[in-house]
TrEMBL record:
The keyword RNA-binding does not apply. Keywords: Membrane. Residues 281-591 form the Penicillin-binding protein transpeptidase domain. Belongs to the transpeptidase family. One of its GO terms (biological process) is cell wall organization. It is found in: Membrane. Residues 72-238 form the Penicillin-binding protein dimerisation domain. Residues 1-20 are annotated as: Disordered. It comes from the Bacteria. SUPFAM superfamilies: beta-lactamase/transpeptidase-like (SSF56601), Penicillin binding protein dimerisation domain (SSF56519). GO terms for molecular function: penicillin binding. GO terms for cellular component: plasma membrane. This is Peptidoglycan glycosyltransferase.
Amino acid sequence: MSTVARPRTGHRSPSAPAVAAGVAHPARRARALMLGVLIVLSLFAAQLVRLQGLDAASVSAAALGERLQSRTIPAARGSITDVDGDVLAVSVERRRIVADPTLVVDYTRTEQAPDGSRQVVGTGYAAAAQVVSEITGADQADVLRRLVDPLGEQYAVLVPDASPQEWQEIKAANVRGVSSEELMRREYPLGEAAAPLLGWIGSGEMAAGGIELVKDEELTGEPGEALFEIGQDGQRISTGVYEEDPARPGQDLRLTIDADLQWRAYDAVRTRVKEAGALSGYAAVMDVETGQLRALTSYPGFDPSQSTQDAADMRNAAVEDVYEPGSTSKLITAAAALEEGIVEPDTPIEVPVTMSRAGTRFKDAEPHPIEYLTFGGVLAKSSNMGTILYGEKLSDQQIYDWMRRFGIGDRTGLGLPGESAGLVPEPSTWSATTRYTFMFGQGLSGTLLQQMGVFQTIANDGLRVHPSIIAGTVDEEGRYTEEEPVAAQEDERVISEETAQSLTEIMQQVPSTGGTAPLAAVPGYHVAGKTSTASRIDPETGRYDGSVTSSFMGFAPADDPKYVVAVVIQRPTRISEFGGVVAGPVFADLMRYALQQEGIAPASTPPAEFDIEFDPEEPVPGQKGVTLGDLAIKDERTDG
């Protein structure tokens, strides 16, 4: 029986693989590795389940939130139009070209080569600046500077004001990181001709001056908001989320102004100021019955689109400037004397060569011998001394009260910014000569509109109507709401119809060949008006500086007045200093244009006749041995 030897304990079988001490068995190591991979995969799976299942909504919202951007949609400011709906001020859409420099830096500009391939012609800021410059006309170096030195890390304004068409071209060029912001720019078709009246929109889109400021609340709209998605290149994703709360435009405003007449008035005043070497000038056209202004302008004007100009030059001189009215105030003295029963239209007045009152010697504008004028003649020939002779029969308080009754010293109620009330000192402050100078318009001050109101009152049979300039409003649905016209009330009566008629007949003698302002005549129409040549006060010294304010104001047709026209030229140095010569032609041009535009036919009857002189030797009917010279008001004082 054979015997098999058994291996000794501690010895490996020759067929068993060798495994180094401390090293895991390969099978076990593979199993561990597989287990680790499965654990990692399970973690990924769990996270995927969480993201796509449990947290899908929140994760999606977070991603969308990173892509969403909002922008304000500017509201169009309401338009301002003239009485016929022609635009005087309007907001137009513009674009602000902006960029994210962190995206623009990676921009590559390519062009198609002759072989049809695309070749790179520029990269980064320089390429983007070149595209924007070529399309908008902006200075390329300036656009590049704005990219290199932006307002913020991700915000640069490349072109502050571009047209929508220019933006569409830039957009089509697909410049990485470049976008646009909507904005509104105010445009004024009449430019300087209406700027002082309309005002302007200053920095920060703030209304300044004129109608823009007065009616800012009505004109201002409500901005909207847009919410949209953007991609990595900063451009809007056209198929992405887009929500919009639209802007609501402001209310449109219609004025009583006639655009054609406004421009003509401005051009006429501008031309005359230059011809006369004058400082400035203003003009206005008013409807007699309603007080509605058809034109209100001044020169020099300013460009309303350039809000960086000196504020001192951006003012409405036609309502802000105060000046001594001069001879147009003689109408008030004349009306007071008629109303108080001191004179009749044909009362004879003997006007001396000179006369002395309160230690001061008075004279008329031009030297003359003794003149024998009727009361109407004194007014028509604008005699200072004749005015004093009948005016001194009024008390100081009566003179003051009548000035105030006609509106001198009070704002007109038009409501435009900066309107002055003028200055009418109370009798207690008067010097010894004030009562006399008041009678012919010195020692007090007023505005163009205040003086114009005197003529409107007379033309309207003695009823005063405050001026107005707002015709109505138009809402966003296009519905027009007319402003209620301010009709004259009997309690606004200043003088009687009889007095108004007498003054009208007298003033018809002024713009005639025998009057003081033949250049103010309007061929074919009967015109009633008055000249003025008043001394100017230097605002720095408070003293007369030797220059004058030349004006002419009046109304037509005299027998059925439709319009009042006022023209004032400040400090003329050429042509003449007399109001009839300097301002009269401008008055005639504007009045003729206004009447013909309204379709008012020329007169078919001769103008009213009025005796402006009298024969001192002519007997007084019914009074034997008494002549008109005996009854005349004359200077019987040496002083006083």
